[in-house]
C-alpha cells in the first residue's frame, strides 16, 4: 500500500489545485509516473474518487488510459452507484483493506483522501509514503497529520525538483 500526496510546508493537503501547479515540472511528472505505473489498483476516499472520476474519465492518452482502466477501491458510506471501474468499500475499511493486502503482491496506490489515509495510518496499513512538499505555507486548511496518527518513519529517499518541491519517501519504522 503506497501513498502519494501533495503537501504544503505546513502539512496542508486540501485542494492543491491553486498551490500545486506553479511547482509542476518534468521532474514531478517523472516521479508521478514512477509511482503510478507499478501500481495495480487505486485506493481512494469518496471526495478524491469523485474529483478524479469527473476529470480523468474524460481524458485519453498516456497515463489517462491506464488510470481509467485500472481497478479502483473507494472507501465510502454514501455513494451507491459505481462508475469509473470502481468497487466500493462500505463496511469495515480496516478489515477490507487488510483483506486486499493479504495473499497478493498487488500494489495499491493511495492519492489524496485525507480521512482514509489517517485511518490507514492508525492501523499501520501504509507500506510507503511519498510526500511531495511544495515550497508554500498556507496557514489554514485540512492537515494530513493529527495527534491520532503520530508515526515514526524511516527516510528512504529525498529528491528536490528545479521548482523547489521536495519529494520525501518514507517507510514505517519497524
Account of the 3D structure:
A hairpin with a 5-residue loop joins strand 7 and strand 8. The mean pLDDT is 93. The chain is 29% helix and 25% strand. The protein starts with a strand and ends with a strand. The radius of gyration is 16 Å and the shape is globular. Strands 4-3-2-5-1-6-8-7 form an 8-stranded mixed sheet, sandwiched between helices. The protein has one domain: Dihydrofolate Reductase, subunit A (3-Layer(aba) Sandwich). The protein has 174 residues and is an alpha/beta fold.
Key structural traits:
174 residues; alpha/beta; Dihydrofolate Reductase, subunit A; 8-stranded mixed β-sheet; 6 helices; 8 strands; 29% helix; globular
Write the layout of secondary structure elements.
Layout: E1 2-7, H1 17-20, H2 26-36, E2 41-45, H3 46-56, H4 64-69, E3 72-75, E4 86-89, H5 93-101, E5 108-111, H6 114-122, E6 128-133, E7 153-160, E8 166-172
Parallel strand pairs: 1-5, 1-6, 2-3, 2-5, 3-4
Antiparallel strand pairs: 6-8, 7-8
Stated plainly, the CATH topology is called Dihydrofolate Reductase, subunit A
pLDDT below 50 for ≥5 consecutive residues: which ranges?
none
- What count of structural domains? 1
Count of alpha and pi helical runs? 6
Major sheet: 8 strands, mixed
Mean pLDDT: 93
User: What's the Cα radius of gyration?
Assistant: 16 Å
Task: Please state how the strands of the largest beta sheet are arranged side by side.
Answer: 4-3-2-5-1-6-8-7
Provide the CATH architecture: 3-Layer(aba) Sandwich
Corresponding CATH superfamily = Dihydrofolate Reductase, subunit A
Amino acid at each position: 500500500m503506497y501513498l502519494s500526496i501533495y503537501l504544503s510546508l505546513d502539512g496542508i493537503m486540501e485542494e492543491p489545485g491553486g498551490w500545486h501547479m506553479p511547482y509542476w515540472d518534468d521532474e514531478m511528472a517523472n516521479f508521478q509516473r514512477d509511482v503510478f505505473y507499478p501500481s495495480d489498483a487505486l485506493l481512494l476516499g469518496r471526495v478524491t474518487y469523485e474529483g478524479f472520476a469527473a476529470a480523468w474519465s474524460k481524458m485519453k492518452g498516456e497515463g489517462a488510459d491506464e488510470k481509467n482502466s485500472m481497478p479502483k477501491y473507494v472507501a465510502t458510506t454514501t455513494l451507491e452507484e459505481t462508475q469509473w471501474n470502481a468497487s466500493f468499500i462500505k463496511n469495515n475499511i480496516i478489515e477490507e483493506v487488510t483483506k486486499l493486502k493479504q495473499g497478493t503482491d498487488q500494489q495499491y496506490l493511495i492519492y489524496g483522501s485525507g480521512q482514509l489515509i489517517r485511518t490507514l495510518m492508525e492501523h499501520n496499513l501504509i507500506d510507503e509514503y511519498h510526500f511531495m512538499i511544495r515550497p508554500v505555507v498556507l496557514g489554514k486548511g485540512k492537515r494530513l497529520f493529527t495527534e491520532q496518527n503520530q508515526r515514526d518513519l524511516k527516510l528512504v529517499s529525498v529528491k528536490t525538483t528545479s521548482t523547489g518541491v521536495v519529494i520525501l519517501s518514507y517507510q514505517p519504522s519497524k
